[in-house]
Amino acid sequence: MYIRHNLNNGVRIVAEEIKYVNSVSLGIWVKAGSRNENINNNGVSHFIEHMLFKGTKTRNAKEIASAIDKIGGQLNAFTAKECTCFYAKVLDTHFDIALDILSDMFFNSAFSEKEIEKEKGVVLEEISMYEDSPEDLVHDIFTQSVWSDNPLGMPILGTEDTLKGLGRNDIINYFDKNYTPENLVISVVGNFEEKYVIQQIERVFSGYNPAKTARENAPKPVFAPKHNHKKKDTEQAHLCMGFNGIELGNKYTYPLLVMNNIFGGAMSSRLFQKIREEKGLAYSVFSYPSSYTDCGILSIYAGMKPNQLDYVMELIQEEIKEIKKNGITEDELYDSKEQIKGSYILGLESTSGRMISIGKSELLLDKIYSPKEITDFIDAVTMDDINHVIDLIFNTDEMGVAIIGPNKNNTVRQGR
């Protein structure tokens, strides 16, 4: 049973009691990510994530880390396209410490000029590390290509130029505009007393009433089937190709997950079996859907020898053609449902996994589905649903492509 409680200032609390565990996970969710940025401040959401660990009015960075380390807890954060999350996992007896540390970071971060300049160096190294990982970078290049005129296509880390251009005032102005009560969700999962936890969160967050600052809504991107080849002297060619997808909460979300699992989302999938197991052309090959509040995308990745790039692309398009022509089998439908349900339930066996699940759902969808509801959604997927999703997604005349590799002369044959 989920607990949902709204504070008078707009901050939302979502929680789930699990009495048989000895931990509690607490997260502060902010509805702000790289999608809320522009070409001048790209990367500021991720940079703020870093800065909140760099010291407050009463604690320096080491004291923040030590406060959690000495109780055996975990303290971390992540930035995504549409949200940022700061979270801690501790023994249930240390909930107050977790709340104190996270709220101190949130409300009292110093954003000192000295720390800002030092942290720019750290994030620049993170960007360089990412540039040295073409198997990761190609996904960013793909989204930058197909959503080139929209902030959703921009990299979460930002770029070297935008990062160097960020000043303290830019950071604080972005924080003030986006880190507002109506954009906050506090998510708690584990062994706790409901009344006490709600009271403590209210005590800390109910007085948070910053001055209202206008925030523009991020525009909906338009998918453009562009091709982009980044020339790089790598041992492999890295390919990311894909199609327009569906938004969060769409009624075909679970049919898409089931279909993708069959197509390229698992070791038993058609892509993996054909390209890796049967042909031996790639170590890594997979597909995955990404959904946002008003749009989505389906991406396909493969890494192979540069001289096999055209052949692998042809094989992928043959598998697309096959699934469009003949669909899937009843056995594939059943097995895929069972696999997705199993993965989902196993992912909820930790308090942090559940905290992330309900926090993100409340923040982006304004609702929470129970595990029973979600498994029922999966079970309800029909062959007609799958056929609809296949027709909806796999439009080979509207396919985007990104490649990182040494050969710039490869082309894509479309409409096969």
TrEMBL record:
Gene3D superfamilies attached to this UniProt entry: Metalloenzyme, LuxS/M16 peptidase-like (3.30.830.10)
Matches recorded under InterPro entries: Metalloenz_LuxS/M16, MPP/UQCRC_Complex, Pept_M16_N, Pept_M16_Zn_BS, Peptidase_M16_C
Top-rank taxon: Bacteria
Pfam families: Peptidase_M16 (PF00675), Peptidase_M16_C (PF05193)
The Peptidase M16 N-terminal domain, residue ranges: 12-159
Residue ranges annotated for the Peptidase M16 C-terminal domain, each copy included: 167-339
Similarity comment text for this entry: Belongs to the peptidase M16 family.
Annotated protein name in UniProt: Insulinase family protein
Species of provenance: Lutispora saccharofermentans
